[in-house]
Every structure is written in C-alpha cells, then in structure tokens.
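Q: My labmate handed me this sequence with no annotations at all. I'd like to see what the chain might look like in three dimensions before we decide whether it's worth expressing. Could you predict it?
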Amino acid sequence: MDKQTVISIDAMGGDFAPRSVLEGVALAAKKHKDLFFFLFGNEEILTPIIKEIGLPDGCYKIHHTTQVIKGTDKPSHAIRTGRESSMWQAIMAVRNGYAKAVVSSGNTGALMAMSKICLGMIPGIDRPAIAAILPSETGPIVCLDLGANAECDAQNLVEFSIMGDVLYKVLFNNDHPKVGLLNIGSEETKGREEIREAAGQLKDNEHLNFIGFVEGNDIAMGSAQVFVSDGFSGNIALKTLEGTAKFFAHTLKKSLKKSPLGILGFLIAAPVLKKLKTKMDPRQYNGAMLVGLNGISVKSHGSADAYSFSCAIDAAARMAKNDLCEKIKSEMSSFLNLAGLNDTEAP
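A: Here is what I predict for the chain of 347 residues:
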C-alpha cells in the first residue's frame, strides 16, 4: 500500500448508500489501480454487497462503525453526537494521515462542519469554500463559492480566487487559467464595494491571470476558467444553470415527439444529440470540493449513482496525487508576502 493513494469513503452516506457508493468504488478501482480505499460503515451490511459486486480484496479495508449521520440531522447535532459515525471516522482518517482524501454523499452541512473541525484551515485562509466543476462552451470550469458563505468581504473573495486558480491547475493541468469575479457588469465601477476592492487586490497579484469582472452569461460560454463569487450569488447562479439545462432538455424532448417530422428529425440528429448528452452529463461533474481546509474533502451528490460517485473519487484522487493543499499553502504564502503580511497576521 506504500505506493497507493488511500481514499477514505463514507460508505453509509447518501440516498442510495451503501450500494451506489460501493459500486462507485468498484468502478474507480478498475480505473485507478493505484488507489486503496478505507470503507467506513457497518461491516455486516457492506460485506455481502462487496462480494456481490466483486470488489477485489486487495484494494480496500472495512472500518466497522454502526452510526450514520442522517440527511435531516442539523450540523450542530451531528457534531455533538456523531463522533462514531461513518462520516466523522472517514474524515478523521485524513486528519490522522491514514488517507489522502475523503469522499461522502452524506449530509452537506454536517460534512462541511465536521471537515472544518477535524481538518482545520490552511494558514492564511479565513473560510472554506464549496467549489464545483461545470461544463461550458470552452471546456470544464471551476466555480466557487457555491453556498458555504452567503456574505463575503474582499479578503474572502481574494482567497477564493487563489484557491480556485490552484484547484483548476491541479485538476486540468493548466498553468495559466483565466480568473474572473462574478459581478453585475464588466465595468470597473460596477458592483458592491467589497467586489471592487477584491478586484483591485487581484490585479496586483502576479501569480494570477485575473481578467476582471465577468457576468452570469459568461459562465456557460466559458469566458474564464475560474469564476469567483460569494456563496449567495454562486448558489443562485448554479441553480439557474441547472434549471435552464433541465428546461432545455425537457423542451427539446417534448418538441421532437410532437410529430412524425419531429421524430424523423430526432433520428437524423441522434448522433449529434448523443455527443451533446455525453458532454452535458452532470454525473461526470459530480463532486463539490471543500477547498481551504487543511485536507481534501469531497461532497458527492446525495442521489449519486455508481458512475457519478466514481467521478467524485476521480476528482479527489487528482487533488490528492497533485498535493492540492500544499500548493494552496504555497500560493497563499506568496500572496501574503506580496501584501507585506505573514501567516500569523493574515485574517
């Protein structure tokens, strides 16, 4: 196991756990021969499913725990009573150095709160952010924050920009991604004071390819590779994109079935539509990353199927293998030095 990257799995978290989680692990194990999995959950429940799906013996180890964090549990309650849960124990495996990353489909609020308590923050980072990968006209993009922080000051937005820049470099091997601040206009005078202040600081950061303000319509067009906002605006933008995509797919399907001519058009366009469906498949973009923590924690969608969960594992593995946290630490240290601060003086 010395040469393998260990991923910690909350096997009991999610709407269809543990089967969908374990099937996702099996898919990831086939794809990544260098991964080893710590599976946290009830051994009596996990073992029969593991045998049924044929997960190879040499790629996993079960850590028995019977407690499960429910989707309805409040984060405060989960923290007080869930120290023996599959989620807490999976996170602690990262904290104690036994695993490089944790992946869970469980309660988002509980995972965020537990991850912050167990893993702590990277020096110089005030708050963690939820980041996600989305499709665009020009390729995959990274958006953050998507809901962890409803209100942000200029410093938070600067930190999110640095973290998003490093995250994109790690995930997509791009050394110079474009970074944009989401705003109500591209003009320098637009937006709230904290956004304008953050833009002023980012312009002076020689390590970032900061392109200035971007608007909501720039997200789908991929005008930048990293889109930065407060969690309130980011979450609304994300849900709007998701709703628009569903509306488009539903309307197209309905229109094509309305008449024989529509059905004929569908048959002719089927190969193109199949490629579009593959490109837009939300499952391959599964895995919201809690960046800024002193450890890698990935939130899979609660209703994720096996393929979707395996994609979340893919993201966690890339971040772990490329030392995401160490690179964020390095970039933050460089930024603080440029600003004339050190880690202890940072907010």
